[in-house]
Amino acid sequence: MSELLAQNALLLAGEAFVMSAVVLALAWEASHLVRNRASLRHLVWVGAFAALLLLPALAWIVPAQIHFTLPAPHVVPAAAMAQDADIGPDIAPLSQPAFHIDIATVATAIVALWLLGVLVIVLRGLVAMFGLHALERRSRVHVFQDAALPDLGRRTEIRIANAPNGLGPITWGLFRPVILLPFSALFWTRERLQAVLLHEAAHIRRHDSISQMLSLLVGALYWPNPLVWLAARALRAEAEIAADDEVIAAGVRPSSYAGELLQLASEFRSQQPALAGLPLFMAAPSALEARVKSVLAPAHKRLGVTSMDVLKIGGVAFLATAALTFARPSFAQSDAAPPAPPAIERAPLPAPAAPVAQASPATPAPAAQSAPSPAPAEQTEPVRPAPPVAEANYVSPNIHIRRSERTVHGHKICHVSVDIDTNGLSAEALERARPQIERAQADARAMQSEAFRAEAEVHAHEVEMRAMQEAGPRIEAEVRAALARAQPEIDRAVAEAHRYNYDLKINERVDRALKRAQVRIEIKDRADRIGGQGHAGSGEDGPGAN
User: Fold this and answer.
1) What is the 3 state secondary structure string of 376-430?
2) pLDDT: is 510 or 411 the higher one?
3) pLDDT at 49 over 90
4) What pLDDT sits at residue 402?
5) Which has the closest alpha carbon to 294: 350, 249, 352?
6) Could you tell me if 438 and 343 are in contact, meaning their C-beta atoms sit under 8 angstroms apart?
7) Average per-residue pLDDT in the chain?
8) pLDDT > 90 fraction of the chain, expressed in percent and rounded
9) pLDDT tens digits, residue range 398-407?
């Protein structure tokens, strides 16, 4: 992977994290504007997930409009490399570090880690699908009478689990929906059975299985972002509340339905398997408090979504996605090559001196030591000036680039230093070696800055992974604490619901007793009137007879 491609890959990862956070933040604010309509809130989250799924496709098709130009990489010419190779035996070669992390290595590691997470989530979804098919094979067709079933459509299949301790009511499927009821549903009352089937039928009419599949795909693509998992949980909660609203709109009394929800949650609290969020559990305890409050809320609007709502939210999601795609930056490489570093002028090495023979004292001095004879007159070719000969005692400095690592608080810190040996060098030799020393120092500074950048990227990645690992238990603890705080209020709501039912029963008994008493009084009055008339007639006939 080239350096430019690695930089663009890291920039794309950062853009995906930032853009997904912006889209989810907008969806969160929009969901707070429609607090009284659960179906519209669910549609807002579906639009946000559709926008996140559309972002990579638009980023691949639409080019970026903001470019950051990077200088072209410097290529050392062959002549300079040959010149560096002919420095001489006195200069030691620059030592290369044993372990080096560049930006391409970091980008490759991050891409591999992301692909590993995507593979794990996809495999988890496939395992969940196989688990649902196994549940369907181990169940049987329902035996309820058609009079007790609401209108579920022709393709919907109702099945009963064979095991006595089965799962709670769940629904899954796109083309052939399946409603799986527990074994205890055979002994349910007609009111509970109708409420449960109305809830599951609402999921099927709203096509909530498609939204669950959409959230699974988005979670696989953006799994490093914890906001995506929080949004998926909010999507499931809003789907359950919207289905509850349709049950209440169908004519079920809110107090009795809230009691049924609490009883189902208490019966199947510990029997919810990990099926990757594909099925919809009616008795899931995660959003039980919000569902009970929504069911008992008197001012809650229990309306569905219209085609105009779908058009508005879809248009806003597409515009937000297009704006974020056009506003993303990217890296580009400049076509102009950077200026080459100044060449180092090196004097040619002195030729080895010819051996001088030791003359004996008796040997006379040769005639060559006398004054040189003049050049012959016939030589007309001009004599070229000889190149300057460096002084015989010139020695190049020994330059070594050293790279050391040490561990501080569990993090490796790299340090690059330049060692220059100038012992035995004259001032003129130091001046000639100055360009070579400056180039070695520039190389050391570049290595140090690259090591710092790699260490900063690795540290940021470790901090992000640590935050992701710590977010899960904290959120779970907060949810449990919220449920614990809301438990007294739930108990009071259940008590009020039971008291309301008892008051209604008492009123009905009093009404029936009053009606019976009134009937008895009317019968007695009628009997008294009939008896009085009989006595009066007998009195009148008496005197006439006498």
Assistant:
1) CCCCCCCCCCCCCCCCCCCCCCEEEEEEEEEEECCEEEEEEEEEEECCCCCHHHH
2) 510
3) yes
4) 72
5) 249
6) no
7) 75
8) 9
9) 776 777 777 7
Write out the DSSP string of 76-97. --HHHHHHHHTS-TTSPPPPPP
In whole angstroms, what is the distance from residue 403 CA to residue 419 CA? 11
Does pLDDT of 48 surpass 90? yes
CB atoms closer than 10 angstroms to residue 101: 18
- pLDDT for 362 equals 41
Question: Which secondary-structure segment (H or E) carries 486?
Answer: helix 434-545
pLDDT digits (tens, 9 = 90+) for 475-485: 878 888 888 88
Cβ atoms of residues 136 and 178 within 8 Å: yes
SS3 147: helix
Q: Phi and psi for 140 in degrees, rounded to 5?
A: -140, 165
Which residues in 147-227 belong to E strands, given as ranges?
A: 157-161, 170-172, 178-181
Residue with token string 């169940």 = 139
Three-state DSSP class for residue 336: coil
Alpha-carbon gap, residue 196 to 282, rounded angstroms: 8
Give the H or E element holding residue 309: helix 307-326
Q: Are strands 139-141 and 66-70 parallel, antiparallel or unpaired?
A: unpaired
> Which residue, among 71, 110, 67, has the nearest Cα to 328 in the 3D structure?
67
List of long-range contacts for 140-148, beta carbons under 8 Å, 24+ apart: 142/181, 143/186, 144/193, 148/190, 148/193, 148/194
- Domain ranges in the chain are 3-72+93-334
Two tokens, residue 448: 């140090």
CA distance from start to end of the chain: 139
CB atoms inside a 10 Å sphere around CB 326 = 13
**Which residues face 70 on adjacent strands?**
333
Q: Which residues lie below 8 Å from residue 435, measured CB to CB, with a gap of 6+?
A: 342, 344, 345
Residue type, 293: K
Q: Express the helix, strand and coil content of the chain in percent, nearest 5 each.
A: 60, 10, 30
- d(C-alpha 433, C-alpha 281), whole Å: 78
Q: Which two tokens stand for residue 55?
A: 């972002």
Phi and psi of 134, rounded to 5°?
-65, -40
DSSP, res 167? -
Instruction: Quote the crossing angle between the two packed helices 38-61 and 226-249, to the nearest 10°.
Output: 140
- Using CA atoms, how far apart are residues 3 and 13, in angstroms rounded to an integer? 15
